[in-house]
Amino acid sequence: MKPSLSILLPVYNAARYLPAALASLRAQTFTDYELIAVDDGSADRSLAILARAADADPRIRVISRPNTGIVGALNDGLEAARAPVVARMDADDIAIPDRLARQFAFLRLTPEFVCLGTAVHFMDARSALLKPCPRSADHDAIERALLLGDGGQLIHPSIMFRRDAVLQIGGYRLAAQWIEDLDLYLRLARVGRLTNLPAALLHYRIHEQSVNFTRNTGRHERKLRILAEAHAARGLPFDPAAIPPPAYKSAFSPDDLCDYAITSLGYGRRGRPWHYTWRALRAAPRARRPWRTLSYLLKHRLGLIRT
Questions:
Q1: CA atoms of 276 and 254, how far apart (whole Å)
Q2: pLDDT tens column, 14-24
Q3: In angstroms, what CA-CA distances link 167 with 25, 164, 177, 226, 265?
Q4: Domains of the chain by start residue, with CATH
């Protein structure tokens, strides 16, 4: 009997985080799913972890293949999926227990929507929560931002989509490697509506070994080509000069660290405000903001400021 939902999980050298991701899926209140884990030529223990998980849970199917990158892994998993609805998940993230149930119920009741994301909480390499990340629910606002190059309008590992809609537009495209989410959403927005649930149903890991820090070569040029195509398909003019190249980073900036120090206060013991404050001070000891952040944390500790 076919499952109601397929979960698509690409895996590449994720042994450090994979057990927690798998545990969060086992803990889901929605259980009528298959998990398609695509090992993309991992050189660590990822495949062994997946094999043990599959032995223990018949819902898990493992595809092992040479490394091609995220697009090839996603398309292989999409081809293997048997359910009409597909949820994305990354091997280093953690799903809240009712994530699948809430997204599946929404899509079942709203056939005009083809793709559904959620708000998320950012977390770090040690799973400390850093910052809430709300997302817009308005399709038109989402599409406008996508046309400006903001693929983060839907957090890719949080999405759930209709498989036939993604197949209709040709799946993921190799020409969009490392910005495959932006490309997918722009094409999906032409065949249906996009939205986000306001609840934060995923803990989304951000760390300095992730793709956003390590896979930036040629990304801006690919983005401009994809945006030009998306504008042309809608009969809209496109000026590439209006999309300046971002300042790609190989590590968190001192401003990032100060930001996480303050926002992680809201998570109590689950955050690491002091850790990020000290990192900011070491990175920029003569800058004012790290010292202001330290002052803020001291006042918070003394009860002079409340989050």
A1: 9
A2: 999 999 999 99
A3: 25, 5, 17, 18, 43
A4: 5-233 (3.90.550.10), 254-301 (no CATH)
